[in-house]
Design a protein that fits this description.
This is Flavin reductase family protein. By secondary structure, the chain is mainly β. It is built from three helices and nine strands. A hairpin with a 4-residue loop joins strand 3 and strand 4.
Length: 156
């Protein structure tokens, strides 16, 4: 049995991570993220180095982290499209948060986090976040297993 057997059993939430820097905004579907400290409060999100959002996030000071509602279309928009080729925010309700970070209005919950550090994890870079603000609504977050049919929209 390989590591894939272990990871196939995990069904954690998926997130949309958003960023803004240099007049550009970006967002992507993320399956690797977790709270990593209680005191001080810290959260880490992992962005693929092949992803357009990573290019914007590495210049940003703040990221937005969103739990998605049971809306596969929203997950597909941020997971299957390439932000270098299309504006993923076109037609989506959002507001501007700290540092110009786009915040999705229809998220089940979201927070903004100041980027404290970045570290290499292989083909993903970890962004260590200190929460700045939190918004919560009603709903059940979308899970990883509900999005396995989405093909990543990385740049070609």
């Amino acid at each position: 049995m390989g590591f894939d057997y272990f990871t196939a059993l995990i069904d954690s939430p998926v997130y949309v991570v958003t960023a803004s820097a240099g007049g550009r905004r970006a967002g992507c579907l993320v399956g690797f993220a977790s709270q990593c400290s209680l005191e001080p409060e810290r959260f880490v999100v992992w962005l693929s180095t092949a992803n357009h959002t990573y290019l914007v996030a590495r210049q940003a000071a703040v990221l937005g982290v969103h739990l998605l509602p049971q809306d596969h279309d929203l997950a597909e928009r941020f997971g299957a499209r390439c932000g270098a080729e299309t504006d993923k925010f076109d037609g989506v309700d959002w507001t501007e948060g700290p540092g110009g970070t786009p915040l999705l209005t229809d998220a089940v919950a979201s927070f903004t986090g100041e980027i404290l550090d970045r570290f290499d994890g292989g083909d993903h870079i970890g962004f260590l976040l200190a929460p700045l603000s939190v918004r919560a609504h009603d709903g059940t977050p979308l899970s990883l297993h509900q999005t396995l049919d989405i093909d990543a929209g990385h740049p070609a």
